Amino acid sequence: MTSDPMDPGGPAAATLVSGAAALGLALAPGQIERLLGFLALLTRWNRAYNLTAVRDPGEMVPRHLLDSLVILPYLYGESVLDLGTGAGLPGLPLAVCDPDRHYWLLDGNGKKVRFVRQVVLELGLTQVVPVHERIEAYRPGRKFSTIVSRAVATIAQIQAAAAPLLERPGRLLVMKGRYPQDELQDPALRDLDVAVHKLFVPFLEGERHLIEIRCE
């Protein structure tokens, strides 16, 4: 009999717990269960809907969970908009480990938002609102203290789209892989308060950077 890779006592859980500890996070048993439950749902839906290119459950822990949770210390305020959330990344892992903030997860792809809705329902994430809408047409009637985006466009493009939705003070967080030298030279960013943070994601090779734009 093949063991369940998402078993709370299995290797994926061990990788998650040790990786989170390396990030300074002590996960409660319920959070571990929810995070593994998210990956189990993602694995199941992926067979039919191709939500993510990552197929190996063992790779999903560092590439989806830890890569999302690494930005938790940079979140600001009480409301977070995940712009172009896709399969709920980084918004769903963050919401599991950060229950006191409210999250809006926005994407224009209907099948991905349906998946996010199912995860929210099954995991009981009452502080998460999935939104099926394109950013250009999104008119929520409110603003957000943090807006995060996981490399869905250039920094300048994301900043232009996010600016009308960002509170002041607020933070725009753009997740990137390698240091985005060319993007950071864009004249549109010249007068903004931009900081670049090099990130360490346990069990994950390759560079990771977070571009933080502060609006005061």
From TrEMBL:
Any single Pfam family the record assigns to this protein: GidB
Annotated S-adenosyl-L-methionine binding sites: G84, L89, I135, E136, R150
Gene3D superfamilies the record matches: Vaccinia Virus protein VP39
EC number: 2.1.1.170
GO molecular function terms noted in the UniProt entry: rRNA (guanine-N7-)-methyltransferase activity
Keyword presence, Methyltransferase: yes
GO cellular component, one term: cytosol
Reactions that this protein is recorded to catalyse: guanosine(527) in 16S rRNA + S-adenosyl-L-methionine = N(7)-methylguanosine(527) in 16S rRNA + S-adenosyl-L-homocysteine
UniProt KW keywords: Cytoplasm, Methyltransferase, rRNA processing, S-adenosyl-L-methionine, Transferase
Subcellular location: Cytoplasm
NCBIfam families the UniProt entry points to: rsmG_gidB
Family: Belongs to the methyltransferase superfamily. RNA methyltransferase RsmG family.
Cited function: Specifically methylates the N7 position of guanine in position 527 of 16S rRNA.
Name the UniProt record assigns to this protein: Ribosomal RNA small subunit methyltransferase G
